[in-house]
Specification:
The chain has 370 residues and is an alpha/beta fold. It has 13 helices and eleven strands. The chain has three domains: 94 residues, no CATH class; 63 residues, no CATH class; 179 residues, P-loop containing nucleotide triphosphate hydrolases (Rossmann fold). Helix 4 packs antiparallel against helix 5. Keywords: Bacterial flagellum biogenesis, Bacterial flagellum protein export, Cell membrane, Cell projection, Cilium, Coiled coil, Flagellum, GTP-binding, Membrane, Nucleotide-binding, Protein transport, Transport.
């Protein structure tokens, strides 16, 4: 991972330089105001120092494919900037040699490391990562070496925690029954429609719907609307004992997606009822849906409530409604289950993607991706 610092008069100028230098995949690690040096610096507007990072291989590929500037003035400016950067690098080396000769370098390194750890800790917290997870990460990561190595180690550790996506796996059994469970308002019905559309149009599977969400008439009608558009057979499941008869009507389907009622994790009666439905159907797969907008303290309660399900995968919804992405790491930490998909809007079937741990590891470390 390549890390560079930029001094600019404002954030817009910094972003332009970062995009030109590191590309659109660069991640901003920190920003701060810097007073210009010298006596007259006190009377001037402070500069902005922005620290940004990008994977080195992407920078190399970008530089190899970069077209030569046609404008002579722009070419001259780029040349002057590179020459200035060389002088700065040379000056930094000279300062390091002077510090080394005066036996102060260990203290400077220690201060630099402490400052970096403070920046990393603050950045993770600002991005919504729970404090206990932040401290666990800082304690686990190897902080020896350059700042580049330290950031890369943190990135690898977060990516490792997020794990590998495990999506819907279909075998030869017909029909394969898949349950979707989760709290009220997380978007189960819309998510089911998105997955159904992808199974039908991308994999050529024959899909069936069962809705057990009889608490909300609107939910039944919503699923029926999607079913009519995609020509999918749909059945409503009212009582637990009706399941055997209902599932027989889907013998010609490859997969049956079951929409369950949104259950409050605080309502034990409703949770007992859901448990009865799950135990009766004994589904091949279960997906627990959690919203990226939910508070971490609520995640813990929800996860405990659904502990009666031995194996499940996680779908994180409403990722488009958050500005920080620490909750992705929080969800993984509290569930300890694989994340399959994330949803990013209401459009069926477009706004659902397979979970990308590399992408979200970058978002969690940095404040945003350019």
């Amino acid at each position: 991972m390549k890390i560079k610092r930029y001094l600019a008069h404002d954030m817009q100028e910094a972003l332009i330089r970062i995009k030109a230098d590191l590309g659109k995949d660069a991640v901003i690690l920190s920003t701060k105001k810097v007073r210009q040096k010298g006596l007259f610096g006190f009377f001037k507007k402070p500069l902005i120092e922005v620290t940004a990072a990008c994977e080195e291989e992407k920078v190399i590929r970008r530089e190899e494919g970069m077209p030569k500037p046609e404008n002579l003035t722009l070419s001259l400016q780029l040349s002057q900037i590179k020459e200035l950067e060389k002088k700065i690098d040379s000056l930094e080396k000279t300062i390091k040699e002077v510090i080394k000769d005066t036996n102060v370098i260990p203290e400077v390194k220690e201060v630099s490391k402490k400052n970096f750890l403070d920046v990393m800790r603050e950045n993770l917290k600002k991005n919504g990562v729970e404090e206990e997870i932040v401290e666990g990460l800082l304690a686990k990561v190897n902080w020896d070496g350059s700042i580049n190595n330290m950031v890369n180690n943190m990135y690898k550790e977060i990516k490792n925690i997020l794990g590998t996506p495990v999506t819907l796996s279909l075998d030869s059994k017909q029909p394969q029954v898949v349950f979707f469970v989760g709290p009220t308002g997380v978007g189960k019905t819309t998510t089911i429609a998105k997955i159904a559309a992808k199974l039908m149009f991308e994999e050529g599977k024959k899909v069936g719907f069962i809705t057990a969400d009889t608490y909300r008439i609107a939910a039944v009608e919503q699923l029926k609307t999607y079913a009519e558009i995609m020509n999918i057979k749909t059945k409503v499941w009212y009582e637990v004992d009706e399941y055997d008869q209902i599932i027989k009507s889907f013998d010609d389907s490859d997969v049956v997606l079951v929409d369950t009622a949104g259950r409050s994790h605080k309502n034990q009666e409703h949770m007992d009822e859901l448990r009865a439905f799950v135990e009766k159907a004994s589904p091949d797969e279960v997906f627990l849906l959690l919203s990226a907008t939910t508070q971490p303290s609520v995640f813990k309660e929800i996860v405990n409530t659904y502990s009666f399900i031995d194996n499940y995968k996680v779908i994180i919804t409403k990722v488009d409604e958050v500005s920080t992405y620490g909750n992705i790491l929080n969800i993984k930490h509290y569930t300890q289950k694989p994340i399959a998909y994330v949803t990013t809007g209401q459009n069926v079937p477009d706004d659902i993607q397979q979970f990308n741990p590399e992408h979200f590891a970058k978002l969690i470390i940095g404040s945003k991706v350019l």
